[in-house]
Amino acid sequence: MDPDVLTIRTDTPGFTAEIRAGDDAGGPFDRVVSESKTVVDRTEFELDNASARYFVVWITALDSLAHVYGVHRDLHVSSHPRPTRPSANRLRGSPPS
């Protein structure tokens, strides 16, 4: 797999992370394939030379807590906004608000 971008989502912004790559699920993940960034609620990491089977979000600085609840792989960078997913309530058949 050779993604161009990994997007992570969090509800605890402010920590610093980078993306590392490896070819085995058990590591090592010693290839840094992105720049280090301070993470906000939705942060895109552009990847360089990231041909690998496994990727990890490597937290390099932590104030108190980091909760990553989503990681998404993009095969190409697009300036078009992504469509939003319906809320869980709408998926259960509740009327839209």
Helix/strand layout:
Layout: E1 5-10, E2 16-22, E3 31-32, E4 37-38, E5 42-46, E6 54-61, E7 68-74, H1 88-91
Antiparallel strand pairs: 1-5, 1-7, 2-3, 2-4, 2-6
Characterization of this structure:
- With 97 residues, this protein is mostly beta strands.
- Helices cover 4% and strands 38% of the residues.
- The protein has one helix at 88-91; strands spanning 5-10, 16-22, 31-32, 37-38, 42-46, 54-61, 68-74.
- Strands 2, 3, 4 and 6 form a four-stranded antiparallel beta sheet that branches. It has a three-stranded antiparallel beta sheet with strand order 5-1-7, with no helix packed on it.
- Strand 2 (16-22) and strand 3 form a beta hairpin.
- The longest helix has 4 residues, at 88-91.
- The model is unreliable at 77-97 (pLDDT under 50).
In short:
With about 100 residues, the chain is mainly beta.
> How much helical structure, as a percent, in the residues?
under 10%
Low-confidence stretches at least 5 residues in length (pLDDT < 50)? 77-97
Overall mean pLDDT score?
81
Order of helices and strands: EEEEEEEH
Q: Give the distance, in angstroms, between the N- and C-terminal Cα atoms.
A: 39 Å
